[in-house]
Amino acid sequence: MRRLPWAWVLFSVVLLILLVAALVGPPAILRWDLGQRAEMLSPAETAGATNQIRSAILQAVGTVVVLAGAYVAWRQLQHNMRAGQAQIELQRAGNLTDRYTRVVDQLASTDETIRVGAIHALDRIAAEAVTERAGVVALLATYVRVRAHHGWTHSDDPELPLRSRASDIQAALTTLTRWIQPEVVPPQWLTADIAHTDLPNANLHGCTLWHVRMRDINLAGADLADADVRGADLRGTVLDGVDFTGTRANRRTWWPTGFDPKAHGISIEQTETAYSMWPPKTPD
């Protein structure tokens, strides 16, 4: 059995008391107020005084009813606002899903301009919806692995910046690294996987590569100045000619065999406060 809200129970009790008082209370109230002087009143005076008391009680009943009506209207307004907000959120989620679906279709386009536009659309989606950021990072990491697989680039253009050879791959790298949250330890050690790719002369200046799997990547000539590679897996990665000015690493960054990060001026962070609750797993 459904319980009545306490407000309605209180309203019903107060209304009942006032109605009973309006019916049987005026004579008692008159005697209580005038005492022995009440017996000295004429029948007409007694009736008039009783009617005045009853009118005052009925006015109080009307006030209670008005207040109850205002309360009901307020509750209904709150309900309508919540329902409206839920509908807005539902529409927003539907629009986001539609946009996401269109973007995924556009990423498969043969037109590089359309693909770059789709990547920027994913950037806007990540900016608008916090819950979609991990998905955007994973999708763009997959895109980079597919588009920049080993052997995709030509041997006659190794000196060209990545943005000149493949603006979509550079845009994907820039966008996915923007939405990786530093200091947030993932359930596994991995935040994104762009391993086994050729990314020579890529621009990763100031990018967040926190716990990114970058194993066996060709990063020759890349710009990693001011980048955050804490916890990243760089084993087997080609780092010839990479700009490491201001690059941040930590004791959980995995380097290629024989690579000396300190000799390249890389700052090694010793504190590991981000791992205090749960240390990440060692990468495969």
From TrEMBL:
Listed Pfam families: Pentapeptide
Keyword set includes Transmembrane helix: yes
Superkingdom in the source lineage: Bacteria
Gene3D superfamilies: E3 ubiquitin-protein ligase SopA (2.160.20.80)
Transmembrane segments: 55-74
Keywords: Membrane, Transmembrane, Transmembrane helix
Name this protein carries in UniProt: Pentapeptide repeat-containing protein
Organism for this UniProt entry: Paractinoplanes ovalisporus
